[in-house]
Design brief:
mainly beta; 5-stranded mixed beta sheet
Length: 307
């Protein structure tokens, strides 16, 4: 049986986050340090460079300096990084680089766009647990610890809507697929797709908590990874389980970028996952980075109508 994708051993460096970036050529952004990102060719796995994302200034930079810093948050192929932790702020950036959402702490959100800069006010004072940006339309979603989903159309506050979410200390994942007008939410118990008014459109219970979750940028598919079991599951837009498989099986089927690779210990955990619109799947198991195709996961039986 032929091999698919590639596998890279980053030694003992834990991988915190992965992003699959469009461009020519498409690249993979990999964080093995909170403020350092390395880039690899998405097809061949070759190293393309690295970048420090640390915001070194002690005080808030002036507008020109801040804009210059934001322009550096790009891959070697020119693609803007979707989300970056600079140490002073977590920054979400639109695809064209014109809009930036900056979260400075658990309460303060700032939007910058074409010279405009303003704080995004909201109802209530509960701290934020998750934020997301529609990278095409500029819609902003922020989930606060009181279960309120705050929606903005760029800098305009639309309102707050109560949502059912499990806030038990486990990660909560929030996504806004490009141009879809929907909000995707994952907690330790379920996956949900909501409209911008907080109404649930699709839901799926999770038998086992997913530590890592990623929706496709267009929202057509969502992939989850169970850290301890190493199981990767792929759901369609209706949140029906379509494919699944173990991370170890995908590692076994991948081409080696290096001559020697140390396979993960039995207790190694899935720490990051990413899914692109073309079906490219990337994940981290221990210090291993694997880039493959979601089609390599095993298809699951689908329910059929009786009549």
């Amino acid at each position: 049986m032929g091999r698919t994708g590639w596998l890279l051993d980053l030694a003992d460096r834990a991988i915190h986050a992965i992003q699959l970036l469009d461009g020519d050529p498409p690249q993979v952004a990999v964080w093995t340090d909170r403020h350092v990102v390395s880039f690899y060719d998405q097809v061949a796995g070759t190293f393309c460079g690295s970048l420090s994302t640390a915001w070194a200034a002690e005080a808030e930079p002036e507008q020109a300096a801040r804009r210059a810093f934001l322009e550096t948050l790009r891959a070697p192929n020119g693609a803007y990084l979707p989300v970056v932790d600079t140490g002073r702020a977590v920054i979400h950036t639109s695809r064209d680089g014109r809009l930036h959402l900056l979260q400075y702490d658990e309460r303060r959100l700032v939007l910058e766009m074409d010279g405009y800069r303003g704080v995004l006010a909201r109802d209530g004072a509960a701290p934020l647990v998750a934020t997301a940006l529609d990278r095409e339309l500029g819609t902003v979603a922020a989930l606060s610890a009181d279960g309120q989903l705050h929606i903005y159309q760029q800098h305009v506050y639309v309102g707050a809507f109560p949502v059912e979410v499990r806030l038990d200390g486990s990660p909560v994942h929030l996504f806004l697929p490009d141009g879809s007008g929907t909000v995707c939410l994952a907690d330790s118990a379920s996956l949900r797709v909501l409209d911008l008014g907080g109404t649930v459109q699709q839901t799926a219970a999770l038998a086992t908590p997913a530590g890592v979750v990623c929706w496709m940028p267009d929202g057509a598919w969502v992939v989850t990874g169970e850290p301890e079991q190493g199981m990767i599951r792929l759901y369609d837009a209706q949140l029906t389980l379509a494919r699944q498989g173990s991370a170890e099986r995908l590692l076994d089927r991948a081409n080696l970028v290096q001559l020697f690779v140390m396979m993960p210990d039995p207790g190694a955990q899935l720490t990051a996952i990413a899914l692109a619109n073309d079906g490219t799947l990337a994940f981290a198991l221990g210090g291993l980075l694997c880039v493959t195709q979601a089609a390599e996961l095993v298809p699951q039986p689908q329910p059929r109508p009786l009549f």
